[in-house]
Specification:
The complex is a heterodimer of chains A (405) and B (235). Chain A has 405 residues and is an all-alpha fold. In chain A, 65% of the residues lie in helices and 2% in strands. Chain B has one domain: Rossmann fold (3-Layer(aba) Sandwich), CATH 3.40.50.300. The chains are: A mainly alpha (405), B alpha/beta (235).
Chain lengths: 405, 235
């Protein structure tokens, strides 16, 4: 009884959040004269979009590192696989020659976009439906390819423990990055050049016949995707598999004595985490509107690891809150540190391009030194917890960035 | 009485070190059997080999006539052998209930009946079912470890030093529970350093020294044996 009531409340909160997102991104076109922060080009929407994408990747990393206790640093590699798989499958036929101009066209002679357009048509509602289908199937394949690679390297790699596992997965990600920039694979990966022209979040904005945007959905779509995926991960963690993952994390010997097969469950966690990293990679490609191997460096993995640590290892809501805080700081709130500022004729010292990262590093060091359990520790934001705070805080996914707008 | 567990010439190596040097022992169905001996005699290694946590280097283990030598622990647990590990090793961050559910991980059927069974054996666990395992006292943690093992509905329960680090009064309670579990039809294989208590409880005892079994007898026989008295009972 109690459980279903809470599930219902959570579903309502999620639906409410999605409504708020739609409202936020459209309000400037409905009510003119609002502050610049509501304009579609505002940093607010950059933060929301990137935050949604990163929170999925952070949660998938937390599933592996926080809930199963496997210290893996292969996230960027699996994101790269997802991003490329999505891009390769969805670049429209008409754009292929232009995208792959250095290699005289693509070796992949089909595109999901054209495939579905031939089924549902390419204008009006049919066009929108084929866009949704192409993107959905593309994202699904992105996850599957990442999961397949995880299954392939899992057998040797998961026999390693702690630091060795981290180094092996990091190495795997770096090797992938090199392979995807290899010119010989150019007709498929476009070599060291970026893949572009595939469907992005902006394509989900609903336009009228004249091509004008009627309803913006470019922030709503990544939120919806991230929420569905995170909900699936939460369901997994609350299942008996999730309990087995935690048992392995806490005490491998005791878990094995209870008859939990260590290898099977580590593999399961690794493959599922990689699947969602792959999905996250595809969403990331949609967010930046291109896919290029050099974006998926180990720095990206560290960034996500940092988010997981700041949010709290072993806390899903912590990862989500951590993501939005981190992204908001790095993309928006600390931007002013990079601008040269004058007060009268006095030039404020230190403020110049790059100073933001210095301050950021210091903030992170303070967090790691003095709040080593992160924002949430291993606790979750719950309805009871929110009630305890006298409803001062908003539900789970109403992030600080969201409230700010 | 039929032997539910038969071990023949079992050897266990850790790297180059031979911990168990070819032991044979029988566990008759429905009895309490104890394995006593000093630190490093190879008792725990024997149990770990039976539970599938280490692979024996030679010898055979058969359970109800079926050879289970070197099988993985999930197969052994699902056959009906479970281990209460040394030092309890409960999951401290999970609640008592979650700990118990982990014990039944390989079972897909309804757990209500077994939960009630464990709660009847250990009413204390029922009171604390929503408490984190790590907040329990040492004795309660031992109860939880035993209860967790019972959740797999074992035919044989193996216990590695259940009295370790517990006050004498609590130890007595634990041994009462062991007898109670045995009365309900579960065969018990018990490792103890507290030889006095173990031999009083057990029907059959084995004495292990440096990887070999040196003495066998009923609990009462061993209790009155001069060599055992001198070495383990301190009288």
């Amino acid at each position: 009884m109690r459980k279903t009531k809470h599930t219902g409340r959570s579903l309502l909160a999620v639906a409410g959040l999605l409504l708020v997102i739609i409202l936020l991104e459209n309000i400037s076109s409905w009510i003119p004269g609002l502050p610049a922060v509501f304009a579609p080009t505002s940093q607010l929407f950059t933060v929301l979009k990137k935050g949604a994408v990163y929170s999925l990747v952070a949660v998938s990393m937390n599933l592996l590192n926080g809930f199963t206790g496997l210290f893996s640093l292969g996230q960027a590699g699996f994101m790269l696989l997802g991003a490329y798989t999505y891009a390769i499958l969805t670049v429209p036929m008409a754009s292929k020659d232009q995208v792959y101009y250095l290699f005289g066209g693509s070796a992949v002679k089909f595109s999901l976009v054209d495939l579905f357009q031939s089924l549902f048509g390419n204008t009006g509602f049919g066009g929108y439906l084929s866009l949704i289908c192409a993107v959905l199937v593309g994202i699904l394949f992105a996850g599957l390819v990442a999961a397949l690679f995880a299954a392939l390297i899992g057998t040797p790699v998961l026999r390693l423990k702690s630091d060795y596992l981290a180094i092996a997965t990091l190495g795997f990600a770096e090797i992938l990055r090199a392979i995807f920039q290899w010119q010989t694979l150019g007709p498929i990966t476009n070599g060291a050049n970026m893949l572009k022209s595939f469907p992005t979040f902006a394509d989900f904005n609903i336009r009228n016949g004249a091509g004008q945007v009627v309803l913006r959905l470019s922030t709503f779509v990544p939120f919806l995707a991230a929420i569905i995926c995170i909900a699936l991960i939460v369901l997994l963690i609350h299942s008996s598999y999730g309990r087995a993952f935690k048992a392995i994390r806490d005490d491998e010997v005791a878990a094995e004595a209870m008859g939990i097969s260590l290898f099977k469950h580590k593999m399961l966690s690794f493959v599922i985490s990689s699947f969602f990293s792959g999905v996250g990679g595809a969403l990331f490609a949609m967010y930046v509107a291109n896919a290029q191997a050099k974006a998926f460096t180990s720095t990206m993995t560290y960034e996500i690891l940092l988010i997981v640590v700041i949010g709290g290892i072993g806390s899903i809501s912590g990862s989500v809150i951590g993501t939005f805080l981190y992204v908001a700081c790095s993309e928006w709130w600390l931007r002013f540190l990079d601008a040269e500022t004058y007060i009268g004729s006095f030039k404020v010292p230190l403020l110049r391009s790059g100073f933001r990262m210095v301050v950021f590093s210091v903030v992170i060091m303070i967090i790691v030194l003095f709040f080593s359990k992160g924002i949430m520790g291993d606790k979750e934001l719950s309805w009871a917890g929110i009630g305890g705070l006298l409803k001062k805080r908003r539900p789970k996914k109403k992030t600080p960035a969201g409230k700010e707008g | 009485m039929r032997n539910i567990l038969e071990i023949r010439d079992l050897q266990v190596h850790y790297g180059g070190i031979e911990a168990v040097k070819g032991i044979s022992l029988d566990v008759p169905e429905g009895e309490i059997v104890t394995l006593i001996g000093a630190n490093g005699a190879g008792k725990s290694s024997t149990l770990r080999a039976i539970a599938g946590l280490v692979k024996p280097s030679a010898g055979s283990i058969s359970f109800q006539g079926e050879d289970i030598t070197g099988k993985d622990s999930n197969i052994i647990v699902s056959r009906g052998i479970t281990l209460v590990p040394e030092g309890r090793r409960i999951f401290p961050d999970m609640t008592v209930l979650e700990n118990l559910k982990i014990g039944a991980y390989l079972r897909k059927d309804d757990l209500t009946e077994d939960l009630n069974w464990v709660y009847d054996l250990f009413p204390r666990l029922k009171e604390r079912s929503w408490q984190a395992g790590g907040t329990l006292s040492g004795g309660e943690q031992q109860m939880l470890a035993v209860g967790r093992a019972l959740m797999s509905r074992p035919k044989v329960i193996m216990m590695d030093e259940p009295s370790l680090g517990l006050a004498p009064i609590i130890v007595k309670g634990i041994f009462d529970i062991i007898k109670e579990i045995n009365k309900q039809g579960v065969t018990v294989l018990l490792i103890e350093q507290n030889a006095n208590m173990a031999l009083k409880t057990a029907n059959l005892g084995y004495v292990m020294e440096t990887g070999r079994i040196t003495l066998t007898g009923t609990g009462q026989e061993l209790l009155t044996n001069e060599a055992v008295k001198a070495a383990y009972l301190g009288t």
